[in-house]
Structure formats: structure tokens, C-alpha cells
Amino acid sequence: AQSVAQPEDQVNVAEGNPLTVKCTYSVSGNPYLFWYVQYPNRGLQFLLKYITGDNLVKGSYGFEAEFNKSQTSFHLKKPSALVSDSALYFCAVRDITKNNNAGNMLTFGGGTRLMVKP
Amino acid sequence: DTEVTQTPKHLVMGMTNKKSLKCEQHMGHRAMYWYKQKAKKPPELMFVYSYEKLSINESVPSRFSPECPNSSLLNLHLHALQPEDSALYLCASSRDREQFFGPGTRLTVL
After folding, report:
1. What is the CA radius of gyration of chain B?
2. Which residue, of A5, A18, A81, B64, has the fewest CB within 10 Å?
3. Nearest chain A residue (CA) to B54
4. Rounded CA gap, B94 and B64, in Å?
5. Residue with the larger pLDDT of the pair A30 and A86
6. Do A98 and B29 touch (CB under 8 A)?
């Protein structure tokens, strides 16, 4: 079965400090991994993805994520947090157990609320 | 055009009302999705349309009825909803890898 775990419900960090939001996965085959961010009362915004290639993936708004196959992790990172980064973050993995000829099914983690304090 | 739009932004309806949610994208994506999202929870997949045909129905109650009139539009018809159906309803589309989400419709059922 495909699954994604975000072990932290909330992460608190001071503005200017580095941040990490954790994600681990369990999949059959090669994982396609994604990070999305959701601001209050808004839809999900795509941040970055790992399909293949370099383990360090760079995305929008200065975020990056490191794919670690041995630890089955895909943690989201940013060198210097901003108050405006405060939001709900979702890790997701392509769900190959569902058939969809035109796209990718996603299995989401439970979400992590990031709070950046001034 | 690189976005998914949804209307209305907010909807309040009674349990006997009939209403519809609309979603539109002009990115040429051939897969479109409806999700339901409760507060502070991940989106839950409801329906998937692939090439304008319903390909996945995640055991959604019949009071929710999806429709895909063409490759750019996706509707969700609502009838006889329950208060527990109150949620943020998200539409998404994809061509290959990542899904692109609309801003959602905040639905309140009284």
C-alpha cells in the first residue's frame, strides 16, 4: 500500500532560522513525491516534486527538499524562514494502486502546520 | 492560462436545496478531480474524470453528482446534503505529474 507520514502536527520556528518539515513514505516501486502548501481558506499550491535525478530538489519560494531513498524520506527545507511561510504543508506520493490514464493519483500525508514567529 | 478557477467561493445551502459547484481549467489537462477537505485535514479524493469520463468514484454518496461537460469544465451537483457535508471543496487538474488545485468552494450546509 502507498502511504505518506508527516510525524509532526506542528513545527514552530523563529523568523530567519532554518526550517525542516518532515515526510516519510512507503511505496511500491519508484516514488513520485510532492510538496504542497495551503494558506488559510485557499487551495493547495504546488511547491516541488521529485521524480528522478538529483536528490536535492529546488522549488518555489526558496523551498527545497531532499530525497533520501535509504531513509525513505523527503523532508522539506528552507534556509531562512519568513513569517509569510506560516501555512499548512502537505507531502504527497503518487498512488499507483489507482488507475488513471490521464494523470496521477495522490496519497497525502496528514499535514504539518508551520508557524514562523517574528 | 495556468490556473484552475472555482465558483462560487462561498456557498450556504439548506438541506433541501439543489446547488452546483463549478471548476474550469484551460491548461489542456485531461484529468480533473474533486476533493473534499475538512479543517486541518488533508484533501479526500471524491471523483476523478479522465478524458471527460468518470474513472474513479471513491464511494461518494449519491447526493453528490459530478459532471464533466467538456475537457475544460467540471461540475459537482449537490442535492439533499447534510450538515456534515460542510467543508472546502477543491477541484484539481493534471496532465502528467503534479496536480494543480483551484482555490476551493467553502460550503456550509444548514
Report:
1. 13
2. A18
3. A100
4. 22
5. A86
6. no
Contact A17, A118 (CB under 8 A): no
Per-residue pLDDT of chain B (110 residues), as tens digits, is 669 999 999 999 999 899 999 999 999 998 999 999 999 899 999 999 999 999 888 889 999 999 999 999 999 999 999 999 999 999 999 987 789 999 999 999 99
Rounded Cα gap, residues A91 and B46, in angstroms:
19
Q: Measured between CA atoms, how close is A103 to chain B, in angstroms?
A: 5
CB A56 within 8 A of CB A106: no
Q: Give the residue from A48, A98, A100 with the most B CB atoms within 10 Å of its CB, the best one to mutate.
A: A100
Residue of chain A nearest B58, judged by CA positions: A98
Residue A114: pLDDT over 90 = yes
User: Within an 8 Å CB–CB cutoff, is residue B97 touching chain A?
Assistant: yes
Q: How much of chain A, in percent, has pLDDT values that exceed 90? A: 75
Substitution target from B98, B100, B105 for chain A, most A beta carbons within 10 A: B98
**How would DSSP label each residue in B13-36?**
E-TT-EEEEEEEE-S--SEEEEEE
How far apart CA B65 and CA B80 sit, in angstroms, is 11
CA distance A90 to chain B (A): 7
